[in-house]
Specification:
By secondary structure, the chain is of the alpha/beta class. About 30% of the residues lie in helices and about 25% in strands. It is globular.
């Protein structure tokens, strides 16, 4: 079974080397919608694949870091990167271009790691990340699956190469969350009292 959680954020970027002159030459923004699709072959004690409320924690914090931020490819012009950092407290450096395709892949890599490092507490079984859909516009989106996230021909995305500004990190519920993720620390879902025994 699949479930889907939708997140929204506003973000600015330049997509270098793309075919559209406006997109490759001018900083511009989009109202993004990111869909996180999870799958499982069993349901938890609440008869859910994964409680939507749990996705309002670290997953939402990661996605929300992109809201009102500027994203740039870490291989872009050094002066452009310097100015992005100087004039925006909210920025994210990416090891790939900030296209819809790469957003989908990058969110897959980060959210997949978060899920793998989360200790489940309510009978969740084999919950995995199915795919990420990143809507850049009302008519255009990219969908990334596991094979895409690790496809070296599309560019390598390592967690340590995605850099969040201090301001983005400060606004997380746990400002140390990404450092913990990089260190392989576990995240624990809250324990749930059983009200009905099956």
């Amino acid at each position: 079974m699949l479930i889907r959680k939708l997140f929204k954020f506003e973000n600015a970027h330049i997509v270098r080397n793309c075919s559209s002159e406006r997109c490759r030459s001018s900083i511009h923004g989009h109202s993004y919608r990111v869909e996180v699709l999870l799958e499982a072959n069993a349901l938890d004690h609440g008869q859910m694949v994964y409680d939507f409320g749990l996705m309002k924690g670290t997953i939402r914090d990661v996605v929300d870091a992109f809201d009102h931020a500027v994203c740039f490819w870490d291989k872009d012009d050094a002066e452009y990167i310097r100015l992005c950092k100087q004039f925006s407290t909210r920025w994210i450096a990416m090891p790939v271009s900030p296209s819809a395709e790469q957003f989908a892949r990058m969110f897959f890599v980060i959210i997949d790691a978060l899920l793998q490092q989360t200790v489940m507490a309510n009978g969740e079984a084999d919950v995995t990340l199915h795919s990420i859909i990143a809507h850049e516009t009302d008519t255009g989106y990219a969908q990334a699956f596991r094979a895409d996230a690790v496809n070296e021909r599309m560019g390598i995305i390592r967690l340590k190469d995605v850099v969040f500004s201090e301001q983005c990190q400060a606004e997380w519920k746990d400002p140390e969350m990404y450092k913990k993720l990089l260190a392989g620390s576990h995240f624990s879902n809250p324990p749930v009292p059983r009200q009905v025994e099956i």
